[in-house]
């Protein structure tokens, strides 16, 4: 089996074993990350023997692209990758006219957190992705956008899985994609989204004070939150909010709070007041996400909150001085919410 070219240690190791000086790595690095070569033989700055060595041992993609779908308006492209172990993971590119191109990446195959509304949660955890597998998703999107004459500006860890349960690989992958000589995404344009793993938030605060943080909050009290997100039983809101206050104190950065709108579950207008009281005076931005129904939604039979109620919710929140955005479901026609395509595939298997 070939190694990923994004496994820098391995590349250096094999160069060394074969008697090439490791400074040669810089030439490979430049060709791969700045010129987006698609074939090692295109790297004219290195000797033929070294190009052959790379061909023998490395690949740009340990994944196969199983499906790649672009929405009708051309804004969203969803990739379903098949890993070398024949599992399915997803990544989504969201293009914006302003050039704010964003990639959503996965960090685990499946997820153990079991949020009731989430398609990935239904799969359970199959395994953590390797660092190079996270990087491959980013590289794939950067290269695809490069071919369109565009570039990748933002990366959000909001695909399949819980980033803070794969912390070491998350950390190495962020350091890699933000590295000047690699894909050079600005640190503040990387966002990690968590369901609320407190020890992870604490580590992240120390390690990545410049990187953005999003919290899947989804309810302003433990009763409702605990009924849809089992994580709340381990790290209830009081503990979660304390770790988030500490994050803001240390970084002075605004936190994004995700609030999925599920009809009759967490959209009672009283909860908007409660949310307002919870976030009042904090450095916070709330994103309302209309619940995205997926094939196989089980007995819960969830539905999206009607638009006018989401707007009422938002208005109520405004009274507390809390800013928010209602997100579009611009990916509806391609099943682009977390885990939906992969879930279908696992069912097929
Ligand atoms: N585990 C991380 C990141 C992955 S989920 C987290 O919980 O934040 C990314 C986002 O998609 C989360 O906010 C999650 O709650 C949301 N999500 C999951 N299923 C969804 C659905 N069916 N419709 C809309 N949003 C969903």
Verbal overview:
The protein has 349 residues and is of the alpha/beta class. It folds into 2 domains: 3-59, DNA polymerase, domain 1 (Orthogonal Bundle), CATH 1.10.150; 64-348, TIM Barrel. The protein has 13 helices and 14 strands. It has helices at residues 8-17, 24-33, 48-57, 119-123, 131-147, 167-178, 198-207, 222-228, 231-234, 237-251, 269-279, 307-318, 340-348; strands spanning 3-4, 58-59, 64-70, 76-82, 88-94, 102-104, 108-110, 125-128, 154-157, 190-194, 212-216, 255-261, 284-290, 323-326. A 10-stranded mixed beta sheet has the order 3-4-5-6-9-10-11-12-13-14, with helices on both faces. It has a two-stranded parallel ribbon with strand order 1-2. Helix 5 (131-147) packs parallel to helix 6, helix 7 runs parallel beside helix 10 and helix 11 (269-279) runs parallel beside helix 12 (307-318). The two termini are 24 Å apart. The relative contact order is 0.11. The structure holds S-adenosyl-L-homocysteine. S-adenosyl-L-homocysteine (SAH) is lined by residues 115, 117-118, 158, 162, 193-195, 216, 258, 260, 289, 291-292, 294, 337-338.
């Amino acid at each position: 089996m070939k190694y990923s070219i994004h496994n820098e240690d391995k590349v250096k190791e094999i160069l060394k074993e074969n008697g090439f000086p490791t400074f040669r790595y810089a030439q490979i690095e430049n060709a791969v990350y700045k010129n987006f070569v698609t074939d090692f033989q295109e790297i004219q700055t290195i000797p033929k023997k070294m190009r052959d060595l790379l061909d023998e041992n490395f690949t740009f993609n340990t994944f196969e692209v199983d499906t790649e779908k672009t929405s009708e308006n051309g804004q969203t492209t969803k990739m379903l990758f098949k890993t070398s172990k024949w599992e399915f993971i997803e990544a989504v590119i969201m293009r914006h006219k302003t050039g704010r191109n964003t990639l959503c990446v996965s960090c685990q195959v499946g997820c153990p957190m079991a949020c009731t509304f989430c398609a990935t949660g239904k799969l359970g955890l199959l395994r953590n992705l390797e660092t190079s597998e996270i990087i491959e998703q980013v590289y794939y999107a950067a290269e695809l956008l490069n071919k369109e004459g565009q570039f990748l500006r933002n990366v959000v860890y909001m695909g399949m899985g819980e980033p803070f349960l794969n912390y070491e690989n998350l950390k190495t992958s962020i350091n890699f994609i933000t590295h000047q000589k690699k894909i050079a995404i600005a640190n503040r344009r990387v966002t990690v989204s968590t369901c609320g793993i407190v020890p992870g938030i604490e580590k992240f605060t120390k390690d990545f004070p410049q990187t953005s943080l999003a919290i899947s909050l989804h309810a302003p009290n433990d009763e409702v939150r605990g009924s849809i997100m089992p994580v709340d039983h381990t790290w209830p809101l009081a503990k979660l909010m304390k770790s988030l206050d500490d994050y803001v104190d240390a970084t002075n950065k605004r936190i994004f709070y995700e609030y999925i709108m599920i009809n009759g579950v967490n959209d009672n207008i009283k909860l908007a007041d409660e949310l307002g009281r919870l976030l009042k005076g904090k450095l916070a931005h709330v994103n309302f996400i209309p619940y995205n129904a997926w094939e196989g939604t089980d007995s819960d039979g969830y539905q999206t909150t009607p638009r006018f109620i989401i707007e009422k919710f938002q208005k109520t929140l405004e009274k507390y001085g809390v800013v928010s955005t209602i997100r579009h479901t611009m990916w509806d026609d391609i099943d682009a919410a977390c885990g939906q395509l992969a879930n279908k595939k696992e069912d097929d298997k």
